[in-house]
Design brief:
626 residues, 13 helices
Amino acid sequence: MLPLLVLLAACGGGGGKDEASSTPAATTPPTLRGIAATGAPLVNAQVSVVDGQGKLVGSATTHAADGSYSLTLSATSPAAPLFIQARGVDAAGRMQVLHSIVPVVAATMVGHVTPLSDAVVALALGTEPAPVFAAAATSTSQLTQMASATTAAKDFLKTLVKTQLTDLKITDPATLDPLADASFAANKGTHDLLIESVRVDFARSSTNVPQLQISNKFLASTAPEVVVALPTAQTELLKATGATPANAITSTLKAATSASKLLPNLSGLDDLGAALNKLIVQGKDSAAIQADALLTTSYDRHNSRTAAGLATLLASYSAANRQLGRFQLLGCAEGAATTGDCSKVLVAAAVSDSTGAIVDVFSDAVSYNKSATTTHKWNLAGNGKKLAVAVHPLAFAAKKADGSADSTQSPNPGIGLQVEIQALAADASVLISSATVQLTGGFSLSFRDCGRSLLCMSSAAGTASVVPTGGVADIAIQRAAIGWVGGVDSTRGAKFLVTTALEDRSIYLNADVPGEPAAARFPALDTVNSSALLRAIDLQGSTLQLDWRTWAAANPDLRLIEIKRVFRPTDGSAPTVLDTAVPLPPKTSVTLATPFTPAVTVTTELWLQAMDPQGRRLHTRYTAQP
């Protein structure tokens, strides 16, 4: 290993010539390596490194197989600390923007980037890391404080997850370094499972104080268990005494609960992924895959998808020469789990092509068979649910053909709840035609068949069916429009009861409903402005290219998940809706493929939907120029 400073011997003798040929000390730039992971590797993520002066000193892309990165810094003597950011899509298809720190510069360094390292950085900074990283050049004093508080922040974080440390049999927590563990890999080892077992979030209190929220990932409710006021935590961590900032914890619990029975069994989960890839690469058809023990042993349906449907999906991966990445744990499949221990675990995996590019996301549920001896102990099981149901925080903005705000829409932007109740199976067969949603506050709303894949909200009780709008109004409970929606329904952990003819479900809100997101957060097209209007004739064709590169660069934590064109007849009849598949990042453009020729007068709209790491949805509606 080369030292950071290499001293070259000067030439001997006297005289000007010898003095002129004397060479000053030369230096070798330091190297940095690490792994970016959220439990599963963060595949093809963009890693950026700034030094203590806020200067960009290195960048790299994580490896497609294991999330590792390695780079040689561009500066020979960068100022400490090094501040690291990784941006990419996790195995569940959500954009992640995570951070880490190397407090002291050395010849060779390790800097892992995970949700736990992100929490350490937040505690040491006293605020959310992303805005500080974005303004690193003018935040040098904050970076210095961050380095000073890092060691204490690591120790404090371990107290918040001490139950997980015990369950994972980490007998000496002092030996675990969440930033620079040289043996760390995203492979369901002890360190990796610690990352997988907790949910790390950032939020703001009612008085706008930045918070760190830590929870047991396997609880049914998504409400935070431990809440830490970040400014108070940093103040205590910076004290010379190395005080433990217990006064910064504003929640009743001082440490997250743990899935004590589940965690020790998870180490063998990646064996199932390897077995599935072996099955896929054999080129078997769906019938042969369905007959394999991996599917026939215990598989139940997963959100209406049967074992036959799963086999068809895996066979399509085989035909397209695709493979599954490592599994990421998402939580319990049972909505009623209360202790954090569950018999079925929700998992997701990135699906990549032969070049390593992510082209899809696979999700299902797995179960553990402790007594299995001739088959895998972990197997695909399905969540046993007959349909998919979800509730997400929502924000909506309406724009005109030139991209400016549509003043005819009020409020604009609007906020509320997005309710997704599956109405049609993958083969377009009808699953249900109606549902009732009971809000946390006790009020109930009706959802009915509208000829779409999801049920639409009904404005009149007892209506058998409703005419869809094709837009967000079909699935949105907008707080301004529905007087029954209150603050209790809009906070993380709010519980909703969904009643259908097939099954009843309890759903928990995964994040707070946003107040009023900044205009720049709503998805926007580069190609629409005052001199380039969005025209109906172009949306009705099949050659228009949509590009959202600028918006994606400005919002690295958001991912575009839906593009649809809505052609709404002015006579009030049902619209025609054409969906366009959205490519996964880093791609930021797509060309419309299906033309549409209206037979009657229509209003032409383009809808974009984005998602943040907590599952919040942001919608933009462009109304095209006639």
